[in-house]
Amino acid sequence: MLLKYKNFFSVLALWIIFGTLIGIAVGSTTHFLLETNDFLGEDIRLKRDWLIFLLPFGGIIIGYIYMNYGKVILNNTLNDTAELNNLVIDSVHGKKEVPRRMGPIIYFATFVTVLFGGSTGRESAAIQMGGSVAATVSKFFKVRRFDKKILMMSGISAGFGAAFGTPITGAVFGMEMASSGKLKFEALVPCLTSSFVGHYVTTAAWGHKHKEFIIQAVPEISTNTFIIVILLSVLFSLISVLYCQLRHGIEKFSEKLFKKNHMKRAFFGGIVIIVLTLIVSSQDYNGRGLQMLEQSFIEDVPSFAFLAKIIFTAVTLGSGFVGGEALPLFFIGATLGNTLHTFIDLPMSFLAALGLIAVFCGATNTPIAAFLLAMEKFGGKGLEYFFVACLVSYLFSGHHGLWPSQKIDEPKSRLYHMARAETIENAEKKKRH
Predict the structure, then answer these.
(1) What is the pTM of this model?
(2) 324 bridge partner residues
(3) I want to staple 334 with a disulfide (CB 3.0 to 4.6 A). Which of 186, 320, 352, 413 is the partner?
(4) What is the pLDDT of residues 29-83, one digit of tens each?
(5) Which CATH fold topology does 223-402 show?
(6) Of 406, 425, 417, whose CA–CA distance to 182 is shortest?
């Protein structure tokens, strides 16, 4: 009995140590990511509109790096860093490995995308850096194959928690991202440790200030309001499916058109973004769009803003540029909620927040993390409504999602006829056939 407890506490101590090491490294690198993105996106790009015309050439640079330096053979398996978060997910499942170079490459490529006006976010870079750091820790300490998967989850948690200032959400997101319908609670301690350490290193040690979104008012609990929330959540889930399908469709089309030449894909995608920017006569939908995202909580935004962001982001990422998708999803959901305020007699900030959470939930298939995100971002306001919104969005988005490698351990409902342990990519292929 004594030996069992000794083994238990020794493993627990190792998880805490590994989680702390990952959190310190990822928290520090995420601070660099956030500060550099702010500098490039706000201090440089917003003051120089002409930089958008260099986006196609930025695409050539990104494509060249991924084609010539992004592919690494480890354990007789080709690991392509251009697969981005899908490679991180595959590494959690033990199918592939994350090369150590993945972090630096995604950071540089994200900076290029942001500087020249591609429509992206930033959390994917933090997650991939988390995977890169976790892979380095695993290799240095020569951890077992099974433990390596758990450390990869910890890297994801550290990246997400540090990028958004939401350590509890980050902890669960790391466990929930790789597999829909299943949580690996054995990873809770290292994921929680790395997420909290990453968050506090970013904020307390380095002093980064995260953006805040405030709900001005929450409607009183009533049956009518719950019905409205359910109906809106169905709409938000369908919007998340629209974005995911459009983004993957553009990616497949561009790869086929240019025979998987990353440089040509990104160059052409950059030209399309320039044309779209000229059509709308605004750069509100380039970059991260933080200004309009914040505006959607306090005043009216253009009614087509959500649709414009869907198109801009789908083209940017689908054609080979890189960056996060959480911020664009926040933008899409919040601006759509803002637009619906014209027709629905509910507080504007509440509808914006509801859209932000529900669209994110539907696209990522992470209902628990999405609910915790609402609690951390909005101070626990509207708890009942956000819980229902996450549940409804998760169910009605079906087996679609941002990451084709995400595994579906359990179907969301008996209404969805599919085998267990399928990936989203395989599930969609079977639907088409």
Answers:
(1) 0.93
(2) 121
(3) 352
(4) 999 999 999 899 888 988 888 999 999 999 999 999 999 999 998 888 888 999 9
(5) Clc chloride channel (1.10.3080)
(6) 406
